[in-house]
Recover the amino acids of this structure.
């Protein structure tokens, strides 16, 4: 059967199936998260734009997130947002660390809410991955020569001072005061995010950024209470999660994004992610957003294959073995595929990023593909009205009779002069 949770051979299930889905798709079933009613299970995932002005959004972000908000996603995330200036990857990264940022981001949250979606923010810190150029330049490290363009390199912080990825200024190994400082920065940014109108906050603990750097034994060689054992390596993540949860209102959910496994040559593994998810559950984190990769090393750990829905099985294991709600993300492009992930219990929600850049109206198209009676309902009413009219026009009597069509076209075209021949 299509929606069996696992096949009998315990192989990873085929999540690209296209058979007829259920009559009441889970993808479009509302979901309650604490006091928040989410209209459907589709999330626009955080996507870094590298176009912020000293951390603040601008007209580009209004256009980018407005496009996603009108497309029908239940939740719309902005990009990863640094909790302090030194926590950005680049000078053009988003941040939530200045009082003026509150009003700037409120412009985005008002827009997202006005178009029927729930605004969400992802807070993070780059750690040793800071002080670089953007994605188009493959995150090339800033060099002293970049100071002539107003982009001087800065000293990054990390759990351990090894210079990987390489930076012209050796990273600073964080001491206890640095750790307390970053935790307090998360607290402050969380308060500011609430004032800016966000309904969901997510902690970015994945992709090789600071929290992930503490988690992985490949990047964390500390010998104090924040290194060594799994419990110690998780301490920084759990302390941040507890502070964010205590700061965020009890009727609003907190998400945590983790990398289920490290990148090629790393060490952080799925069993450790399950233990982390259990610990996050104890500090009342609501949903685990399951991604992968970001820390690399010289072990025999392979790269995760980039297949359709390639992280859904990680989500499945964490969801069932840790007893938490999860988000599946990565390689999800088809409506039946997304519905199957939910029906088979691999996740409670699905998130997409690049597919929404290609097709921001994906939710409405998915509603059509899954057989919903009015897929246009997930678009703005003005759009929906015109699209419904177009569908109704297909049923006009004249369109059903080939002889009427032929006679009509003959009337308009036979006596029309032909020029340019």
């Amino acid at each position: 059967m299509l929606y069996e949770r696992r096949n009998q051979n315990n192989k990873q299930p085929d999540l690209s199936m296209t058979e007829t889905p259920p009559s009441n798709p889970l993808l479009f079933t509302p979901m309650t998260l604490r006091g928040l009613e989410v209209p459907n299970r589709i999330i626009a995932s955080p996507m870094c734009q590298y176009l912020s002005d000293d951390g603040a959004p601008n007209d580009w972000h209004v256009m980018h997130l407005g496009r996603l908000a009108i497309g029908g996603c239940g939740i719309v995330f902005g990009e990863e947002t640094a909790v302090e200036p030194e926590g950005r990857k680049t000078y053009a990264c988003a941040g939530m660390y200045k009082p003026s940022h509150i009003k700037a981001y409120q412009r985005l949250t008002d827009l997202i809410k006005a178009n029927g979606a729930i605004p969400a923010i992802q807070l993070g810190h780059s750690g040793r991955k800071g002080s670089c150029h953007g994605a188009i330049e493959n995150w090339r490290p800033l060099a002293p020569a970049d100071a002539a363009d107003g982009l001087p390199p800065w000293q990054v912080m990390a759990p351990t001072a090894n210079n990987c990825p390489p930076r012209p200024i050796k990273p600073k190994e964080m001491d206890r005061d640095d750790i307390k400082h970053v935790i307090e920065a998360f607290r402050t940014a969380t308060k500011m995010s609430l004032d800016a109108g966000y309904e969901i906050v997510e902690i970015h603990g994945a992709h090789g950024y600071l929290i992930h750097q503490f988690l992985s034994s490949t990047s964390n060689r500390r010998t104090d209470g924040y290194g060594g054992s799994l419990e110690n390596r998780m301490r920084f993540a759990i302390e941040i999660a507890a502070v964010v949860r205590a700061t965020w209102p009890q009727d609003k959910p907190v998400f945590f994004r983790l990398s289920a496994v490290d990148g090629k040559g790393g060490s952080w593994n799925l069993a450790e992610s399950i233990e982390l998810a259990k610990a996050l559950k104890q500090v009342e984190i609501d949903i685990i957003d399951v991604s992968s990769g970001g820390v690399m090393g010289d072990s025999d750990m392979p790269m995760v294959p980039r297949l359709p829905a390639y992280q859904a099985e990680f989500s499945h294991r964490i969801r069932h073995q840790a007893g938490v709600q999860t988000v599946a993300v990565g390689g999800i492009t088809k409506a039946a595929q997304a519905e199957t992930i939910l029906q088979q219990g691999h996740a409670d929600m699905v998130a997409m990023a690049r597919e929404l850049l290609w097709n921001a109206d994906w939710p409405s198209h998915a509603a059509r593909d899954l057989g919903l009676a009015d897929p246009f309902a997930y678009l703005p009413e003005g759009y929906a009205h015109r699209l419904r009219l177009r569908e109704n026009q297909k049923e006009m009597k004249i369109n059903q009779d080939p002889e009427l069509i032929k006679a009509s076209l003959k009337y308009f075209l036979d006596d029309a002069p032909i020029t340019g021949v």
